[in-house]
Amino acid sequence: MIGRLNHVAIAVRDLAAASEVYRTTLGAEVSAPEALPEHGVTVVFVTLPNTKIELLEPLGAESPIARFLERNPDGGIHHVCYEVDDIRAARDRLVRNGARVLGSGEPKIGAHGKPVLFLHPKDFLGTLVELEQA
Amino acid sequence: MIGRLNHVAIAVRDLAAASEVYRTTLGAEVSAPEALPEHGVTVVFVTLPNTKIELLEPLGAESPIARFLERNPDGGIHHVCYEVDDIRAARDRLVRNGARVLGSGEPKIGAHGKPVLFLHPKDFLGTLVELEQA
After folding, report:
1. Does A121 sit within 8 Å of B74, measured CB to CB?
2. A94-112: average pLDDT
3. How many pairs of residues across A and B have Cβ atoms under 8 Å apart?
4. Which of B1, B2, B24, B131 has the highest number of chain A CBs within 10 A, making it the mutation to test binding with A?
5. pLDDT (tens digit, 9 = 90+) per residue, A40-62?
6. Do A122 and B49 touch (CB under 8 A)?
7. Membrane-spanning regions, if any (chains A, B) (predicted)?
8. Contact between B124 and A24 (Cβ < 8 Å)
9. In chain A, what residues touch B76 (CB-CB under 8 Å)?
């Protein structure tokens, strides 16, 4: 069912400093920051040959990554995102297998303009998993 | 400098149960378990079209992931591994930029039979980073 690893998301406190780590220290291609107020984050994309890393900084009082950064003040890997062909079929299979989908269970439009769902970390080896319809 | 994302490593308590989550619930291709006593882990590989996920279970009393699992009893993402062309040149660049390499600073032969280094999470946004010579 799952296809490509779309991205690995790393939550950071300071996006400018984090971009510099990836650009200068690790020598990767890093995009300009993009504010996504409807998702409560500002994001930069690190382009690797086979996938991408997303660096996320909290934006606004309701940012979904604010609590994660309270628990992980240095930052840390926040989630992985796998692509699926049909997000509703994927959800139905997951629910049949006893996995919990976060929120209402209905796909929302994610940061790339495509339908996404988040799965409960307790059902996926302590890892927050995002599914994105490819 | 960094190239492909070679893998994302997830530490788990129970490799059989974790394999089942990826095989049955997420519908991915999962390899048979492989014991790597010299690395203190048993590993399975989840093959995705563009990269792989490695599920790691502690093996032996000195496993490098045992403490991580004490802090994260459900499991969790342990590290990401980026490929580099020349691991010593990569290390020298990192050290020049003020980043800390774990251990002796000399590459060791990693789980894929290739030279690897681990970088200090405090210097990389709270993320343990492995570099592997491609």
Report:
1. yes
2. 94
3. 120
4. B2
5. 999 999 999 999 999 999 999 89
6. no
7. none
8. no
9. 125-127
Provide the residue range defining the domain that includes A84.
5-133
Task: Give A134's Cβ-side CA count (13 Å radius).
Answer: 13
Q: How far does A6 lie from chain B, in Å, by closest CA? A: 9
CA distance to A74, A102, B8, B10, B69, per residue, from A71 (Å): 9, 20, 22, 19, 16
CB B85 within 8 A of CB B99: no
Q: Phi, psi (5° rounding) for residue B15?
A: -65, -35
User: Are A93 and B27 in contact (CB < 8 Å)?
Assistant: yes
Neighbours of B89 (CB within 10 A): 12
- Residues of chain B predicted below pLDDT 70: none
Q: How far apart are CA A58 and CA A36, in angstroms?
A: 10
Q: What is the DSSP letter of B46?
A: E
ipTM of the complex: 0.96
The minimum CA-CA distance between A5 and chain B, rounded to whole Å, is 7
Q: What is the CATH number of the domain that holds B42?
A: 3.10.180.10
Q: Looking at the 3D structure of chain B, how many domains does it have?
A: 1
pLDDT at A104: 94
Q: Tell me, what's the pLDDT at A117?
A: 97
Q: How far apart are CA A90 and CA A69, in angstroms?
A: 30
Three-class secondary structure of residue A20 per DSSP: helix
3-state secondary structure (DSSP) of residue A98: coil
Of B4, B18, B97, the CB nearest to A25: B97
Residue type, B124: F
Active site residue A132: no
B75:A126 CB<8 A: yes
